Amino acid sequence: MGLHRRSDVGRRRELKFCSTERVRVAWVRDAENGVWGFLCGSSSPVKRWTEKYCLTALFVMCLVSFLKFKLRRKRTIDRVAASEHGNHHYGHDGFKSSARRYTWDHMQKHTMNFSSVLGYGGFSTVYLARFPGSTMGAVKIHSQSDRLNQAFKQELDILLHLQHDNIVQLLGYCDDPDEGFLVLEYAPNGNLQEKLQGVGESMGRKGQMLPWKRRMAIAFQLAEAIEYLHEKCQLQIVHGDIKSSNVLLDEQLNCKLCDFGSAKMGFSSTVLPPSSHGTKRMMIGSPGYTDPHYFRTGLASKKNDVYSYGVIVLELITGMEAFSAHSGERLTRTLDPMLRDSEKVVEMVDPHLGGDFDLEEAKVITSLSAMCLCDSPSLRPSASDILRTMRNGIPSISFLFRGKA
């Protein structure tokens, strides 16, 4: 193989030959016009069909590449147009979502090429984004796989139809099959797990301890979010993965429930009909939070979320983790003896509070948690029952109702 130069009526061409016994292929460069071309010639005794085959293959390759380029360009133009003119979706409850469509190039700019990582999920990474007007957002990008792409589409579809003060707001999205992402409301105080375990301080977030009153407020707001999903939203949603790391905290430490990748829709009754599961059962939930009844039977219901809520209430009371990776012990098992004896409630309360809590409220909320953790789902309260109990028995949350009718 070699590089040869020759003149051709005042033009210079550079030929790069790649030869075998039977065929000679040449990439030709027109030095005057800077154009590359392709030649295929047969050397004796190769038949002429070899040359036709090479040229046909080249033509097909070029045509496919051109069509792919045109299709990708059209998708990009459509998405840019949609993002520039706004894109509104009407939810099942009649409200208009203001979520905006973005392109990957847009988000590279807003995230400074995805340089600031806010956190990692089991199958996703979240980046900080900055928009005009000092607005900030959290860009969630799922790992690539068929199952995770389905979870992404499901989460997008659900968030487009939800509107509640205690559920994270969808600000924008890109639904390109290869470059999909969600732009979510930014929560500067991280998540509840970080706050209770003191992780937020090491991540540059405000590390102040949550006082008792604020813990009770978070418990109430989370129950409001669950009530909305279970009883007030037409989609009738079971979240399926309620845990403290999925409870975000905004600037005022208000609760924002997030991560709907495991959610299930269509719970017009308490229990999802078995036919909706299909023949293959895939478990949802996280260690320490998963309903044992669901784990045994695979029967998804609204009471799965209620059980997980009960675990979070225990975390708020004690400041302890739901599941210890070190010992493999579940918090519910550790505290089971104390949950059965109201006189031991004071021993459960987070010592970091320094005794600054209301004992009667502690008894009410501990009893409520125990009810949520009942082995039989039918004995667990609904989200509405939880809210009613808290309104009547937790006076410290009264500040949440000021200014409300």
Automatic annotation (TrEMBL):
SMART domains reported for this sequence: S_TKc (SM00220)
PANTHER family: OS01G0253100 PROTEIN, OS02G0648100 PROTEIN
Known EC number: 2.7.11.1
This protein's name: non-specific serine/threonine protein kinase
Keywords: ATP-binding, Kinase, Nucleotide-binding, Serine/threonine-protein kinase, Transferase
Gene Ontology MF annotations: ATP binding; protein serine/threonine kinase activity
Pfam families assigned to the protein according to its UniProt record, in alphabetical order: Pkinase
Organism: Abeliophyllum distichum
Residue stretches making up the Protein kinase domain: 112-400
Gene3D superfamilies the UniProt entry points to: Phosphorylase Kinase, domain 1, Transferase(Phosphotransferase) domain 1
